[in-house]
Specification:
about 90 residues, mainly alpha, about 0% strand
C-alpha cells in the first residue's frame, strides 16, 4: 500500500539520516564537555529539523490519505481529518 509520503520517501530518509548524524554530534558535544548553550543550540536545530519532517509528512498525509478518504465518503473523510488533527495536537504539545 502506498502512503502519502511514498513519492518523497528518499528525501525523508536523507533528512532523517542527517538528523541522526546531528544527534550523534550532540552525544560528542556532551562527551567533549561542550559549553551548555552550544549544546542547547544544537538541540534546537535537531528539533527544528524533526518538525520540518513532521510538517512534510502531515502535508503528504492530508494531500493523499485524507483526500482519498473524503472521496470515498464524508464519514471516512471526517475520520481521517480527526486522526490528523489529533496527531497535530500531539506534535504541538511536545
Amino acid at each position: 500500500m502506498a502512503h502519502g509520503y511514498t513519492p518523497r520517501k528518499e528525501d525523508y530518509l536523507v533528512r532523517l539520516r542527517r538528523i541522526e548524524g546531528q544527534v550523534r554530534g550532540l552525544q560528542r558535544l556532551i562527551e567533549d564537555d561542550t559549553y551548555c548553550i552550544d549544546v542547547l543550540t544544537q538541540i534546537s536545530a535537531v528539533r527544528s529539523a524533526l518538525n520540518s519532517v513532521a510538517i512534510g509528512l502531515a502535508e503528504d498525509h492530508i494531500g493523499h490519505c485524507v483526500i482519498d478518504a473524503a472521496k470515498q465518503s464524508d464519514e471516512a473523510g471526517g475520520e481521517k481529518v480527526a486522526e490528523v488533527t489529533a496527531t497535530i495536537a500531539r506534535l504541538v504539545k511536545s
